[in-house]
Amino acid sequence: MERATQQEAKVTFLRYAIYFLPPASEAWAGFGASWLGWDVETGQELAHPAETGLDVAALTATPRKYGLHATMKPPFRLAEGQDVDALRRACATLAASRPAVTLDGLEIARLGRFLALRPVGELGALNALAAACVTELDPFRAPATPQELVRRRAARLSPEQDAHLLSWGYPYVLDQFRFHITLTGRLDDDMLMQAQTLLQRRLGPLLPVPFTLADLALVGEAGDGRFHLIHRYALSR
C-alpha cells in the first residue's frame, strides 16, 4: 500500500489534479522549475535563473503556483462521498492500464499571449491518455459551482467548450485538449519575443529527444494555491 508523502502529511489539500510532471532528474525539468520559481516535487520555492536580463519573477507570476507541468485532468474538488485513498487507488488502476507515450520531442511555442512547451509528433496516444484521465476519474470530481461556471464562461466559450464545462467541469478537455507545459503568463509582443529568445538559448538545448511521458502525477492544491506532488504512478510499458 502507498504511504503518504511527507508533503501530504503536512498539507491539507483543497483540490486535486492529474499532471504530467517532468522527471526531476532531467536537466530541462530542473531549469523549468527554477524558471517558474516553484518545485511541485519538493514543495519548495526556487531561485530564478541568474543573468537573464529579464524580470523572470514577473513573467512567471501567473503559472508559478502550478509548477512545471502539463494538466491531464484539471483541478477538482472531491465529490461528496469520495476520499483521497479511493482516488489514489483509481489513479494506480488507470496508470497500470495505459502504456507510456513517446513523441518526437518538445518545442518552445507561443500559445496566444503566453509561451509553453508543446509536443512534437503524432498526438493520438497522448490525447487518448488525457481523455482517459478526464473521464475515468470523473466520479471523484465535485460538480462545478455556479460561480465557477460564470467565471469560465467569461472566456466566451464555444458551444463544444461549454458542453465540456457542464459535463466535465472544464472547457478544454477531450477534443478541445492541447497538451502544453506553461512557461509564462500573458505577455505583450516585445516581451514574448525576448522571453522566447532567452528560453530557446537556455532551455532549448536541454529539451528531450524523444520525449516520453512515463507516469502520471496526482497533485494537490494547498491553501495558498500552490500545487504539491502527492504520488507518481508509472504507466505500463
Structure report:
The two termini are 21 Å apart. This protein is globular. The strands form 4 sheets. A 4-stranded antiparallel beta sheet has the order 4-1-10-11. Strands 6-7-8 form a 3-stranded antiparallel beta sheet, with helices on one face. With 237 residues, the protein is α+β, with helices and mostly antiparallel strands. It is built from 8 helices and 11 strands.
Topology (elements, then pairings):
Layout: H1 6-10, E1 15-20, H2 27-36, E2 38-39, E3 44-45, H3 56-59, E4 70-76, H4 84-96, E5 101-103, E6 105-111, E7 114-120, H5 124-136, H6 146-153, H7 159-168, E8 181-182, H8 189-202, E9 211-213, E10 215-221, E11 227-234
Antiparallel strand pairs: 1-4, 1-10, 2-3, 5-9, 6-7, 7-8, 10-11
